[in-house]
Amino acid sequence: MADHKHLFKKYIINISSLTSKKQTNVDLWKDHLFVLFLKYVIPGSLIALIPGVLVAIKVHLYDIAILDLTCFALLIFAKFSRINQITRKLLVLGVFYVLAIFLTNKFGFHGPGLLYLLFITVVSALFLPMIFAYGLILLNCLVVIALSLIISFHLIQSPLTSQYNQAAWLTFGTNLIFISLVVVLMIHVIFNGLETTIIERDAKEEEIKRSELKLRTIFESTIDGIVLIDSNFIIQTFNAKSAQLLQHNNRLLNCQPGINILDFTEDYRKVELMAAFQKLKTGEVVEYDRCFGENSDEAIWIHYTVTPAYENSRFIGACITMRDVTASKKHLDRIQTQNKMLHDISWAQSHLVRAPLTRIIALTDMLGEVHDADEQEELLNYLKTSSLELDNVVRTISNLGTD
C-alpha cells in the first residue's frame, strides 16, 4: 500500500512539474489547465475503464474492451511522450472523439457517446485556440448529418436506426449543436475578458516595477542615508549610504531589516528615541547631531532628521535621514576659532595698544615743552620704555593672527 502511495505521489510531482512556470497570458493558462486535466483524467478514467472492460468481456463485446484499452494507452502516451503541446492536446481530443462516435453508433442514446461529443467541444474551448472549438462544432454538424443518413437509409447496423427516425435524430442532434455553440461562445467571452484582465494586470505590474526601480534608484543614489522603521521600531529597509554611515555606530554594525532598533540602542538613548516617537505621532519633525569617535582625530559628525510616516492618516513609522556633516562641523569650528582670534585681536588693540600709545603721545608733547637736559633725558627714557612696551603688544597681536 505504501508503495502505491509513493508511486502516485511521484506521478503527481512529475505531471505537476509542467505547471511550475508562471502564467502570463491566456495561452499559457490554457496549457496549465490542460496539464491539470491530464493530471486527474488518467487516474480518474480508471473508474470507468475497469468496470467497462470487465462488463464488455463478460458480454463478449470485445471491440469495446479493445477500444477502451487502446484509448487509455493513447492517453498514457500523450502524457509521457515528448511530443509538442499542441499535438498532445489534439491526440487527447482525438481519442475522446473516436470514442464518442464509436459509443454513439454502438449504443445510441443509451450510451455515453453523445455526452462525450458535448464534453469534447467544451474541453477543446478550454485547451485550444477558439478556432478549434468552432471547428469541432462544425465537425459535430457533419457527424449529425452522417448519422442522420445512416438512420434514414439504414446504411449500417446501428442501435440508432431503431431508436430514432431521421426527424427525431435531427431534432436531437441540432439541440446538441445548439448547446455546444452556446457553451463555446460563453467560454470565448470569458477568455476574452480574462485575457484583457491579464494584459491590464501585466501592464500595471510592469508599471509598478518601473516605478519601484526608479524609486529604488533614487533611494540608493541619494547622498543621504535613509532608514525606514515601523511604529514598533522594527527596521524595514535602508539604503547603501545608511549602511555606510551606520558602520560608525559599533552597536549597529550588523544592522539588517527585521531587527528592533531598540535592541541596539544605549539605555539612555532609548528614552530619547521613544520621546522622539511621541513627537512624531503629533506630526513634529525631530532633528539632532551626534558625534562618533569624539575623542579621536577621526571624529565623525552625523546629522539626523526623523520625519513621521503616515498611511491613510495613520502613523505607521518613521523615516530617519542621516547626513555626514563632519566637513561642515569642522568648517564651523574654524570660523568660530577665527572669530575668537579676531575678537582677541580687537580686544588687544583696544586695550593693550592704547596704554603705551597714549603715553608715547603724551611724552612726545612734553618733550616740546621741557628745556632742561636732565628732564629731557628722563622723558626720553620713559618714551623708550613705552615704545618697547608697544612693540611687545604689536608682536603679541601679530602672533595671535599667525596662530
Descriptive overview:
With 403 residues, the protein is an alpha+beta fold. It folds into three domains: 2-200, no CATH class; 225-324, 2-Layer Sandwich (Beta-Lactamase); 329-402, Orthogonal Bundle (Helix Hairpins). 70% of the residues lie in helices and 10% in strands. The protein has 13 helices and five strands. It has helices at residues 2-16, 26-58, 62-80, 85-107, 113-127, 130-153, 159-163, 166-221, 240-246, 267-281, 326-352, 354-367, 373-402; strands at 225-230, 235-238, 286-292, 300-311, 314-324. The protein has a five-stranded antiparallel β-sheet. Helix 6 (130-153) packs antiparallel against helix 8 (166-221) and helix 11 runs antiparallel to helix 13. The two termini are 96 Å apart. Mean pLDDT is 82; it is low at 10-24.
Series of secondary-structure elements, N-terminal to C-terminal: HHHHHHHHEEHHEEEHHH
**What fraction strand?**
5-15%
Shape annotation? rod-shaped
Residue-averaged pLDDT: 82
Task: Name the features.
403 residues; 70% helix; Beta-Lactamase; Helix Hairpins; rod-shaped; alpha+beta; 5 strands; five-stranded antiparallel beta sheet; 13 helices
Task: Give the SSE layout.
Layout: H1 2-16, H2 26-58, H3 62-80, H4 85-107, H5 113-127, H6 130-153, H7 159-163, H8 166-221, E1 225-230, E2 235-238, H9 240-246, H10 267-281, E3 286-292, E4 300-311, E5 314-324, H11 326-352, H12 354-367, H13 373-402
Antiparallel strand pairs: 1-2, 1-5, 3-4, 4-5
Helix pairs in contact: 1-2, 2-3, 3-4, 4-5, 5-6, 5-8, 6-8, 11-13, 12-13
